[in-house]
Amino acid sequence: MLIDTSRNGWGNCVQTPCQSIQTTRPTAASTSTVLDTYINQSRIDRRIHLGNWCNQAGAGMGERPTAAPQPGIDAYVWIKPPGESDGSSSLIPNDEGKGFDRMCDPTYGGNERNGNSMSGALGNAPISGQWFSAQFQQLMANAYPALS
Protein backbone atom coordinates (compact mmCIF):
# COMPACT_ATOMS: atom_id res chain seq x y z
CA MET A 1 0.00 0.00 0.00
CA LEU A 2 1.21 3.49 -0.89
CA ILE A 3 -0.01 6.60 0.93
CA ASP A 4 0.21 10.02 -0.72
CA THR A 5 1.42 12.36 2.02
CA SER A 6 2.18 15.36 -0.21
CA ARG A 7 -0.63 17.49 1.23
CA ASN A 8 -1.85 15.85 4.39
CA GLY A 9 0.43 17.54 6.93
CA TRP A 10 -2.14 19.98 8.32
CA GLY A 11 0.37 21.24 10.86
CA ASN A 12 0.08 24.53 12.67
CA CYS A 13 -2.01 26.86 10.54
CA VAL A 14 0.28 29.84 10.14
CA GLN A 15 -1.10 31.04 6.82
CA THR A 16 -4.12 33.27 6.44
CA PRO A 17 -6.88 32.61 5.97
CA CYS A 18 -6.79 29.66 8.31
CA GLN A 19 -9.95 27.72 7.52
CA SER A 20 -10.28 26.32 11.02
CA ILE A 21 -11.24 27.54 14.44
CA GLN A 22 -8.33 25.47 15.65
CA THR A 23 -4.87 26.81 14.83
CA THR A 24 -2.67 24.06 16.22
CA ARG A 25 -2.48 20.40 15.30
CA PRO A 26 -4.12 18.15 17.90
CA THR A 27 -1.59 16.10 19.85
CA ALA A 28 -4.17 13.74 21.38
CA ALA A 29 -7.85 12.90 21.13
CA SER A 30 -10.24 15.34 22.75
CA THR A 31 -11.53 14.56 26.23
CA SER A 32 -14.93 16.13 25.54
CA THR A 33 -18.01 13.95 25.99
CA VAL A 34 -19.96 16.01 23.43
CA LEU A 35 -19.67 14.10 20.13
CA ASP A 36 -19.31 17.09 17.76
CA THR A 37 -16.79 18.78 20.06
CA TYR A 38 -14.82 15.54 20.41
CA ILE A 39 -14.63 15.11 16.64
CA ASN A 40 -13.73 18.73 15.90
CA GLN A 41 -11.08 18.94 18.63
CA SER A 42 -9.47 15.67 17.48
CA ARG A 43 -9.56 16.51 13.77
CA ILE A 44 -6.26 16.67 11.90
CA ASP A 45 -7.69 17.13 8.39
CA ARG A 46 -9.00 20.69 8.47
CA ARG A 47 -10.88 20.78 5.19
CA ILE A 48 -14.28 22.42 5.59
CA HIS A 49 -15.76 19.24 4.05
CA LEU A 50 -14.07 15.97 3.13
CA GLY A 51 -15.32 16.39 -0.46
CA ASN A 52 -13.26 19.56 -0.91
CA TRP A 53 -10.12 18.80 -2.89
CA CYS A 54 -8.87 21.85 -4.79
CA ASN A 55 -5.85 23.85 -3.52
CA GLN A 56 -7.03 23.66 0.10
CA ALA A 57 -6.22 26.61 2.37
CA GLY A 58 -4.37 25.52 5.50
CA ALA A 59 -2.90 22.32 4.03
CA GLY A 60 0.68 21.33 4.70
CA MET A 61 3.17 18.76 3.48
CA GLY A 62 2.92 15.49 5.36
CA GLU A 63 5.41 12.74 6.07
CA ARG A 64 8.44 12.79 3.78
CA PRO A 65 8.63 10.07 1.14
CA THR A 66 9.84 6.95 2.92
CA ALA A 67 10.08 3.28 1.97
CA ALA A 68 8.41 0.77 4.33
CA PRO A 69 7.65 3.28 7.12
CA GLN A 70 5.65 0.70 9.09
CA PRO A 71 4.28 -2.84 8.72
CA GLY A 72 1.68 -3.08 5.96
CA ILE A 73 2.69 0.23 4.36
CA ASP A 74 5.04 -0.05 1.39
CA ALA A 75 5.82 3.65 1.21
CA TYR A 76 4.83 7.21 1.89
CA VAL A 77 5.02 8.98 -1.47
CA TRP A 78 4.38 12.42 -2.90
CA ILE A 79 2.32 11.47 -5.96
CA LYS A 80 1.08 15.01 -6.49
CA PRO A 81 4.09 17.36 -6.49
CA PRO A 82 3.76 19.99 -3.74
CA GLY A 83 3.10 23.36 -5.38
CA GLU A 84 1.34 21.96 -8.45
CA SER A 85 -2.05 23.65 -8.83
CA ASP A 86 -5.18 21.50 -8.74
CA GLY A 87 -7.02 24.05 -10.87
CA SER A 88 -7.62 27.74 -11.42
CA SER A 89 -9.63 29.80 -8.93
CA SER A 90 -11.31 31.61 -11.83
CA LEU A 91 -11.75 31.07 -15.54
CA ILE A 92 -8.36 31.54 -17.20
CA PRO A 93 -8.19 31.36 -21.00
CA ASN A 94 -5.46 28.91 -21.95
CA ASP A 95 -4.24 26.96 -24.96
CA GLU A 96 -4.20 23.66 -23.02
CA GLY A 97 -7.99 23.30 -23.12
CA LYS A 98 -8.26 23.26 -19.33
CA GLY A 99 -11.62 24.32 -17.98
CA PHE A 100 -12.69 25.84 -14.71
CA ASP A 101 -14.06 23.83 -11.76
CA ARG A 102 -16.10 25.78 -9.21
CA MET A 103 -14.56 23.68 -6.42
CA CYS A 104 -11.36 25.67 -7.09
CA ASP A 105 -13.14 29.01 -6.55
CA PRO A 106 -12.71 30.24 -2.95
CA THR A 107 -16.02 32.14 -3.17
CA TYR A 108 -18.02 29.06 -4.22
CA GLY A 109 -20.72 28.13 -1.71
CA GLY A 110 -20.72 24.44 -2.55
CA ASN A 111 -23.28 21.89 -3.67
CA GLU A 112 -25.06 18.78 -2.36
CA ARG A 113 -21.93 16.65 -2.62
CA ASN A 114 -19.98 18.83 -0.18
CA GLY A 115 -22.87 19.71 2.11
CA ASN A 116 -23.26 23.16 0.51
CA SER A 117 -20.00 24.16 2.19
CA MET A 118 -17.50 26.74 0.97
CA SER A 119 -14.81 25.22 -1.25
CA GLY A 120 -11.91 26.10 1.07
CA ALA A 121 -9.72 26.72 -1.98
CA LEU A 122 -6.91 29.26 -2.12
CA GLY A 123 -7.45 32.28 -4.35
CA ASN A 124 -5.36 33.40 -7.32
CA ALA A 125 -4.60 29.84 -8.40
CA PRO A 126 -3.28 29.12 -11.91
CA ILE A 127 -4.65 26.36 -14.14
CA SER A 128 -4.11 22.77 -13.09
CA GLY A 129 -0.58 21.45 -13.38
CA GLN A 130 1.06 24.88 -13.26
CA TRP A 131 3.33 26.08 -10.46
CA PHE A 132 1.39 27.72 -7.61
CA SER A 133 3.96 29.52 -5.46
CA ALA A 134 1.52 30.67 -2.75
CA GLN A 135 0.29 27.12 -2.28
CA PHE A 136 3.85 25.76 -2.08
CA GLN A 137 4.77 28.35 0.55
CA GLN A 138 1.68 27.40 2.56
CA LEU A 139 2.47 23.67 2.28
CA MET A 140 5.97 24.32 3.63
CA ALA A 141 4.78 26.61 6.44
CA ASN A 142 2.10 24.14 7.58
CA ALA A 143 4.17 20.96 7.14
CA TYR A 144 3.83 18.22 9.71
CA PRO A 145 6.32 17.10 10.73
CA ALA A 146 7.71 20.61 10.44
CA LEU A 147 10.43 21.25 7.88
CA SER A 148 13.81 21.97 9.42
Automatic annotation (TrEMBL):
SUPFAM superfamilies per UniProt: Glycosyl hydrolases family 6, cellulases
GO molecular function: hydrolase activity, hydrolyzing O-glycosyl compounds
Protein name: Glucanase
GO BP: cellulose catabolic process
Keyword Protease: no
Major enzyme class: hydrolase
Positions in coiled-coil regions: none
Keyword annotations from UniProtKB, A to Z: Carbohydrate metabolism, Cellulose degradation, Glycosidase, Hydrolase, Polysaccharide degradation
Gene3D superfamilies per record: 1, 4-beta cellobiohydrolase (3.20.20.40)
Highest taxon above the source species: Bacteria
Pfam families: Glyco_hydro_6
Protein family membership: Belongs to the glycosyl hydrolase family 6.
EC nos: 3.2.1.-
Lineage: Bacteria, Bacillati, Actinomycetota, Actinomycetes, Micromonosporales
Organism in which the protein naturally occurs: Catellatospora bangladeshensis
TM region(s), chain numbering: none
